[in-house]
Design a protein that fits this description.
Blueprint: H1 4-18, H2 25-32, H3 36-49, E1 57-62, E2 65-70, H4 75-83, H5 92-104, E3 107-108, H6 109-116, H7 121-129, E4 133-138, E5 146-150, H8 152-157, H9 178-203
Antiparallel strand pairs: 1-2, 3-5, 4-5
Helix pairs in contact: 2-3, 5-7
Length: 204
Amino acid sequence: MTTKIEQKAVIEGLLFVVGDESLESRQVADVLGIEIEAADSLIQEMMTDYQSDDRGIEIVEIAGGYQFTTKAKHVAYYEKFVESPTTSSLSQAALETLAIIAYKQPITRAEIEDIRGVKTEKPIQTLASKHLIKEVGRAEGTGRAILYGTTKEFLEYFGLKSIENLPALPDQSQDQSIEEEADLFFENFHNVLETNAEEQEEKV
């Protein structure tokens, strides 16, 4: 890899992969096989590029690392999108992520992705924007990843007095495959959510 364009493309991909974790110049330098100063220079150029008005996201420096984030000046559009009736229901990905957080909290994004087997950055953003989950701390160890938990709004929305009122999960069986356990996990939680939502509607 020799061109600056290719190097920037790789950095762009790395920023997408790390999501809400920070990407450090040292990591960029290791991946590209260049000096840290050169990695810093590339990132600074990209930060300037993303300040352009035709970009919807930007690169910000947080605690010595770098992340993609949306632009603050567009926040009114994001609020409108979240409040839109067409986006009011939860997708299957968001529902699965919410179930995992509800039962396993506090939990990191990496742990959620280990269970689901796919990335969960967008579902987490969706759930946070709907105030169903929130950051509840930082995990011990390298990187001190963000821990997620459910909110008071989550309990109110689903008519739960406390998180202890969540239905019990199916008993774990040694003969039961991980895939079957996951299916039962999500099916059980989905049924409870539907029941609670119906009860809430009847009360209204």
